[in-house]
Write a structure and sequence with these properties.
The chain is mostly helical and about 300 residues long. The longest helix is centred in the middle third of the chain and has 34 residues. About 30% of the residues are buried. It contains eleven helices and three strands, in the order αβααβαααβααααα. Helix 4 runs antiparallel to helix 6 and helix 8 runs antiparallel to helix 9. Strands 2-1-3 form a three-stranded mixed beta sheet. The radius of gyration is 21 Å and the shape is globular.
Length: about 300
Amino acid sequence: MAWMDKQNITVLKEFIFMGVTDHPELQAPLFGLFLIIYVISVVGNLGMVMLTKMDSRLQIPMYFFLRHLAFVDFGYSTAIGPKMLVNFVANHNTIPYNWCATQLALFILFIISELFILSAMAYDRYVAICNPLLYTVIMSQRVCWVLVAVPYFYSAFLSLITTIKIFISSFRGSNVISHFYCDSLPLLTLLCSSTREIELIILIFSALNLVSSFLIVLVSYILILVAILKMNSAEGRHKAFSTCGSHLTVVVVLYVTLLFMYLQPKSSHSFDTDKMASVFYTLVIPMLNPMIYSLRNKEVKGALHRIWKNL
C-alpha cells in the first residue's frame, strides 16, 4: 500500500512524453527542421501583429482579423513548440503536472479561437464582396471586437471545462503520454476512472465547434461565389477568387486535419498517425498562415516597404 501511495505521488508530479519519434538517428534532423519552422512561425506571426498595428493603411477589419489570427497562431504554436524542441535535446522528456495542465488549457484555448476567427474572416470577406457599399457600416469596430471577443471567451470556457475534468480525475500507474505534448486524447488513456463523460464532452463540443464554424465559412463562400459569378469585370473576378482561394486552402487543410484527429472513433486512433497530424497543425500551419494571408498581399508588402524605408 505504501509503495502504491508513493507511486501515485510520483505520477502527480510529472508526465513523460514519448516524443515525435523513437528513432535516435532522426532526433537531430527533426530538431533542426522544427526549430526552423518554429522560428519562421514566430517571426511571421509576431511581425504580422506588429505590422497590422503600426501601419495606418492596414487599419481595416480584414487586417484586424488577420492580426488576431496571427496572435492565436503564435499562441498555440508557442504552447507546444518550445517544449517539444527542448525534448529533442533533453535526456528526460518530462513535463511537470501543473505545466501539462497549463499546456492543454492554452492549446485548447487557441485552437478553438482559430476556428472561429477563420469564420469571422470568411464573414468579413462576404461583406466586403457582396455588400461593398455597406462594408464600413456593417463591419464597424464594435462588431469586429465582438467577433473576436466571443470566440476568446467561449474558447476559454471550454478549455477550463476540459482541463479541469481531466485533471481532477484519477490517473493510473503509468504517467507516459504517447505524444509530444499534453493533448486530451492521450491523457484520457492514462485515467483509471471512467472516461465516458469526458469523452462525450470532447466529442460533442469538437463536433459543434467544427461543424458550426465550418458552416459559417461554407455559407459565406457560397454567397461569395454567387456574387463573383455575377461580376462583369474579369479582373475583379480574378482578384476575388485569388483572395478567397488562399483563405479557403488554409481552412480546408486545418479542418480536415482536426476532423481526422478528433472525430474518429477511439478504437481507430493510431497515435503515430495522430502525432504527424499534430505536427502539421501545431507547427506547419502557423508557419504557412502569414505567408498565405500576407506575403502575397500587395498592401502588406507596401507596408513592409514603407517601414523598411523609414528605418
